[in-house]
Fold Glutathione S-transferase.
Amino acid sequence: MQFVDLETAKAASGLRLVVAGGFPSPWSVAAKAIFQVKKVPFVAVRYRAPGTEICAWTGTYNAPAALYDAEPVRSGWAEILELGERLAPEMPLVPSHPEARARMFGYGHELMGEGGLLWSMRQYAIDAGLASSGEKGFPLVASKYLAPRYGWAEGCGPRARARFHEGLAVLDGLLRSGKPWLLGDTFTALDIYAASAMAVIAPLPEKDCAMLPPLRQTFEWLRGDTGNAITPALLAHRARVHEMHMPLPLDV
């Protein structure tokens, strides 16, 4: 992977990724990791709001966005994964058995999709930021920017926090089988998604993942607020993923 400027990316062929810059957005961290694990070469452009020129190129205000040659832009976590499966089928991250595949995508949605663990975590941190003028949760400016993008509504905080904790409990339950990976003996994209999520739920040290100080403050607050829901099993799984498949430091 090589970070390049926008004009260089626009002129390049092959795979180009637009990823969030300045902090380990789980969706962006996972997108990069999928192609790195699969050894698919790509260049990346850092997106920071408002990113008007980048959005004009990709046609979306979301990051990550994957552009492959002249194909349509992909910005959803599942469609980015499917692109990776097509470009490098020799290193599968999606189970071949249909029931196992359905389980992986189902759990993937609970983690990465709208209304899932990460969506709810952000909604909760937005609510906390708005309620405390940025002393808790996201900084106030970020909370106001993110609120309409994550369906924030007055009083949504407790429900979002409960959904966030439910998601962590589901992941922890999958690890109680004693197997090394979330779906058993085989490493899948779900393991990448879980490790990527933990980068904001239980922030890595600065040497392993540098991020903008106001956002580190947000995620350190979240870690303290989440407490025992961040189990030793989840942290051990994250460490195993980084040791074997996603080397540190994370480049954001």
Summary: The longest strand covers residues 15-20. The radius of gyration is 17 Å. Residues 2-87 form a domain with the Glutaredoxin fold (CATH 3.40.30.10). The chain has eleven helices and four strands.
